[in-house]
Amino acid sequence: MLSSRIFSLISKYNLKPNSDLGQNFLIVEDVIKREVERAEIAKNETVLEIGPGLGVLTDELSKKAKKVYTIEKDPRIVKILKNEYNWDNVEILEGDALKIDFPEFDRIVSNLPYQISSPITFKFLKYNFKRAVLIYQLEFAERMIAKPGDKNYSRLSVMVQSKADVELVEKIGKGAFYPRPKVDSAVVILEPKTKLEQIPLNEDLVKALFQHRRKKASKALKNSYHMLNLSKEEFKKVKTLFDNIPHAQKRVFQLGINEIKEIEEYLRENNLLL
Ligand SMILES: C[S@@+](CC[C@H](N)C(=O)[O-])C[C@H]1O[C@@H](n2cnc3c(N)ncnc32)[C@H](O)[C@@H]1O
């Protein structure tokens, strides 16, 4: 059984899981199998994994892919993996996944360390790949997939969905991990949109709007003019222009991605945004 294998490795190496590194290991075989199946890995493809932990997901990936790159920050874990497995198509890269340049890959499959969910997701989206199957904290996954008007609709929803299609495909209870985390988790499939489908948004603008997500769009921007790099004097001169932005009367949490883009274009036309 998978759980007994994890427990025996932990005791063999006297490993104290480091919660600062999000070390909650998957102990349910079916969850791992489903995650790998959902990735739809072809025999000639390369897979990237962040945080192999005790190698159980990595092991399944190595059976499906031509090559697996797995990035692990904890040197204790790297040592255990090198001792326990004899993979010939897995390359373990030791270091911080936020700092290492990724090699080329087709797919990403990972049970992510939750502390780095946001920056690692945006880092993924800078690369060209087909599909990612990722386990996140449930609350984070719900924010990623939220639609305009939803209570979880946020800057994260807008920024991710402007670049990728996202789907929450399975919720996972705390009992699927050891040590048991405090929060539930979820499996998310993320597929980058084509260049033509993507809607590149000005990040400062999205930040400025969502600083006041329940306010009307015009009011939200007036309140965060400094985030658009306007000085107080400049803002005073152009203040009334904000009353005429497209969708001025809508609340920020109701704005769709295209509507935000229209606001961005209006601000550019009026030299209020670079
Ligand atoms: C949630 S565990 C997943 C372990 C394993 N894949 C599993 O499913 O059981 C997260 C793993 O990511 C590693 N990790 C944490 N922060 C990291 C970072 N910045 N870069 C690379 N690995 C990291 C942890 O040491 C841990 O092994």
UniProtKB/TrEMBL annotation:
S-adenosyl-L-methionine binds at residues 24, 26, 51, 72, 96, 111. It is an enzyme of class 2 (transferase). Its EC number is 2.1.1.-. It comes from the Archaea. It is found in: Cytoplasm. GO terms for cellular component: cytoplasm. Keywords: Cytoplasm, Methyltransferase, RNA-binding, rRNA processing, S-adenosyl-L-methionine, Transferase. It holds the Pfam family RrnaAD. Residues 31-194 form the Ribosomal RNA adenine methylase transferase N-terminal domain. One of its GO terms (molecular function) is rRNA (adenine-N6,N6-)-dimethyltransferase activity. SMART domains: rADc (SM00650). Specifically dimethylates two adjacent adenosines in the loop of a conserved hairpin near the 3'-end of 16S rRNA in the 30S particle. May play a critical role in biogenesis of 30S subunits. Belongs to the class I-like SAM-binding methyltransferase superfamily. rRNA adenine N(6)-methyltransferase family. RsmA subfamily. This is Probable ribosomal RNA small subunit methyltransferase A.
